[in-house]
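Risk register update: the risk of archive-format incompatibility is retired. Evidence:
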Amino acid sequence: MEGLARQLAPLRLTRGGPGEQPLSVELGLAELLELGDPYAFDPAATWVQRPSRDRLRVRLGIRADGTPIELDLKESAQDGMGPHGLLIGATGSGKSELLRTLVLALAVTHPPNVLNFALIDFKGGATFAKLDRLPHTSAVITNLVDELPMVDRMADAINGELLRRQELLRAAGNFSSLRDYEKARAAGAPLAEVPTLFVVCDEFSELLSRRPDFIDTFVQIGRVGRSLGVHLLLASQRLDEGRLRGLDTHLSYRIGLRTLSDMDSRAALGVADAFSLPTAPGHGFLRFGTDPLTRFRAAYVSGVHSPSVAPVAKPDAGEPLGLAEYSTTYIAPKAEHEAAVVTPAEDPDAVGESLLDILVDRLAGQGAPAHQVWLPPLAESPTLDQLLGGLTADPVRGLRARRPDLNGRLRAVVGVVDRPLEQRRDPLVLDLGGAAGHVLVVGAPRAGKSTALRTIITSLALTHTPARCSSTAWTSAAARSARSAGSRTSPAWPAGRTSARYGAPSPRWSRCSPPGNAGSPSTTSTEWPPTGRCGPPAPSPTIRTATWCWSWTAG
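Archived output:
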C-alpha cells in the first residue's frame, strides 16, 4: 500500500466533465475575454500597456478541455505564430463569424495606435459590416467581384502602404524593421507611433481565380510584411494550392473549419480531420509549425447578446486531494463548472442587439483614428467651396475663397487628382499665367464640358478681383452671376467679329451703365456686379475668353 501511495502522490485529478462538453456550448466573446457586462465595457480597461509576450496575442475560442485557445500574430522570432496565416472553411462552418470574432477581439484588447486593420471582402458580403466604425480600421474594401477594375486600385493602396512604411523607416534612421524602430522609440528616441497593420482578405481564392496576377501583391506582403509590421490572413471556402505559388511558405499558421472534402482539409492542414468536424459553426483546428493540431470552438459575436452560461476553465495544476470517508459507493469527482446548459440554436427572428453592435458602439470614436490606407474612388464630385477651403464674405471684395495661396495668381482650382498609390488626393489647379494660360476642354455630349467651364470661371471669380482677372464667355450661363464677368454675347454674334473685338478690349467695357442693361444679339452686353455700384474705370484686367465651342484663349 505504501508503494502504491507513493506512486499516486504526484498525480492530481483535473476537474470537469467529458472532454467534449465545452465544445458543445456556444461562447460569447465577452465571456471569453472576461469583459463582464459589455454595455459597461470601457476600452481604457483593456487598452493598457501589454507585456511583449501578450502583444498581438488574443483569445479566439476554447479548447476541448475548456481552456482558452489563443492566436499569436507575432513572428516566430518573438515566440508568435505569425505573421501570416490561412483560414479555410466551407459555407456554414462559421468562417465569416470567426473573422469578425478575431478582428473584434483584437480591437478590444489593442488600441488603434498599436494595431490597425485593412479588411477585404472580395464578394461583397456582410463579413466586415459595421467594423468600419472601429477606430482601428484603415480600410474596408468590399464587392470587388462586380468591379474588377477596383482590384488594381486595391493593389495600389496596399503597395502604397508598404512603400510608405519603407520610407518612414528609412527617414527615421535607416531602421531595418519595425521591431528595431519600436526598440529605439522605447529607448526614448523621438519617433512617431507606427501601428501594426493586419490585412484580412476573405474569399481570396475567388479573387485569384478572377485576377491571378494579384498573387504578386500577396507575395510582396509575405516577403516584406514581416519587417514592416504588415500581417496577412487569407480566408476562403476552399483552397486551390496551385494558386498559392510562392506564398504558401510565408503562411506560418493555418486554421481549418469544417471543409467540403477531405482534400480541402489535407490542402489546408495536411490531414483530413477538418472534413469530419461537426456541422455546427465554429468548430475547427489550429495548426502552427510542426505542433500537433489543436481542436477548438470559436467564440461568436453576431448573435443576439445574452449572458453566457458556460464559464471558461482556467488551467491549473489541480487542488490537493482530501480524504473521504471509506465507502463502497463510487464517488464522482467534483466538476469544475456548474452544469452547463447547451445554448439553443440562434433564432433568426430574434430581436435585440448583437455583441458586435454593443462592443463596436463602445469602441467607436475612442483613440486616434487609423491612417487611411484605402481612399474610396471619386464617385461624387466635390463642390468648389470644398476645394477652395470654404468661402468667406469680404465687405470690400465680396465672396472670397479662404485659400490665400490662390488669390490673384491666375490659378484656378477645378477638381481633385486621385492618387491611390500615394494614399492621398490633391487639388487639380490650372495655372493660367504666362504661356500656360491656354486650356482646351474636350468631351462627349453630357460629359461635363459646361460644368468644367463654369467651375473655371467661378474659381477665378472667387480668387481674383475684376481688376485682376475678367472672364468673357459666349452663351455661358455661369458668367451671368459672376461678379467679375466682363462680357458675354449671343450665338448669333459672328465668331470672327467677336474674336476680333475680344482680342482688343475696348476701354468702354469698364465704364458704368445701369444694372440689367441688355444688349441685342448683334452687340456686346456688359455684366455688372449684383450691387449695381459704379466707380471709376478699373485698370485693364487680364482677359480670359471662353468660346461656346469650349476653348479658352488668352487676351
